[in-house]
From TrEMBL:
Transmembrane segments: 45-66, 78-102, 123-148, 160-181, 193-212, 258-277
Gene Ontology, cellular component aspect: ATP-binding cassette (ABC) transporter complex
Family to which this protein belongs: Belongs to the ABC-2 integral membrane protein family.
Protein's recorded name: Transport permease protein
Biological source species: Sphaerisporangium rubeum
GO molecular function, one term: ABC-type transporter activity
Cell compartments where the protein resides: Cell membrane; Membrane
Cited Pfam families: ABC2_membrane
Length: 285
């Protein structure tokens, strides 16, 4: 009797198809969801990055009353437009600077660098989180300005286009600066002081709380070096219109210079990121 060898089914001999790794964009989007959840779970991060501009708007808008620019603009409306710029910078520069410094200090960056996750996906995740936080913050500030302080939203598309490019250039430049400045703190504990203090000072000299017409010239010259002054100026042009132009140092919003300076900070911020960013903390060498 001849022996017969059973032939295994073709399906059994066929190798299981290899799973394709997720794309950089897909991994970045997934990382962005994680970053956003982690942000809202950190009370300190929410207060310093998210709630601070809102609280300051309510406080300053309630304390300081009156009209500026020939009576066409209220002080509260001026604060609303300026704090939108401060809110965008808080969500990008401050949030990223402190957050990445913490990730570096606790070893998160070191661990991520040893995983299959593309390094660019980490930054995509951070950007997704920044955009979500900034969008929500701007929406809340606008809602407070409209319903509490009679801020008028622009009705023409040109102003919204201006808002869009100021927002995009501003948040891009400030995000790159946040990534770069994250290398300055020696530890996560010192990150808040190292990054938050200069940001608070910038707000007072960049026209967020005090009109430029009431500040010494040497302070306005310092403020003109940094992006916050130009972001606030661009947002004031959108929400205050021609009536608010008289409050600017030159009597004009100078939107061409706003675009030029913000674009320069995008380029400069990218160069700083490429030359200063570290994946390891100082104690790791």
């Amino acid at each position: 009797m001849s022996d017969t060898v059973a032939t295994p089914p073709a399906a059994a001999t066929r190798a299981a198809p290899a799973r394709r790794p997720p794309s950089v964009a897909a991994a970045g989007w997934a990382r962005g969801r994680v970053e956003t959840k982690m942000f809202f779970r950190e009370k300190d991060a929410v207060v310093f990055t998210f709630a601070f501009p809102i609280v300051m708007l309510v406080i300053f808008g309630s304390i300081f009353q009156g009209r500026l620019g020939g009576g066409a603009v209220t002080v509260s409306q001026l604060y609303t437009a300026g704090l939108i710029g401060a809110g965008v910078m808080a969500a990008s520069f401050q949030n990223l600077g402190i957050g990445i410094a913490g990730d570096r200090d606790d070893g998160t960056l070191k661990r991520l660098a040893g995983t299959p996750l593309p390094r660019s996906s980490y930054f995509i995740g951070k950007i997704v989180s920044v955009l979500i936080v900034a969008a929500v913050e701007v929406a809340i500030l606008l809602a407070i300005g409209v319903f509490a302080y009679d801020l008028t939203l622009p009705s023409d598309m040109a102003n919204w286009v201006t808002f869009a490019w100021v927002f995009v250039l501003g948040i891009t430049g400030c995000s790159l600066l946040g990534v770069a400045v994250s290398s300055l703190p020696r530890s996560a504990k010192s990150a808040s002081a190292v990054i938050s203090l200069p940001f608070v000072v910038l707000q007072f000299i960049s026209g967020v709380f005090i009109p430029f017409t009431q500040m010494p010239e040497w302070l306005t010259r310092i403020a003109a070096v940094f992006p916050l002054k130009w972001m606030c100026q661009g947002f004031r042009s959108v929400f205050l219109g021609d009536a608010g132009a008289a409050l600017e140092t030159t009597g004009s919003y100078e939107l061409d210079r706003v675009a030029l300076v913000l674009a320069a900070w995008v380029a400069g911020g990218l160069i700083l990121c490429l030359t200063t960013f570290r994946w390891k903390s100082r104690r790791d060498g």
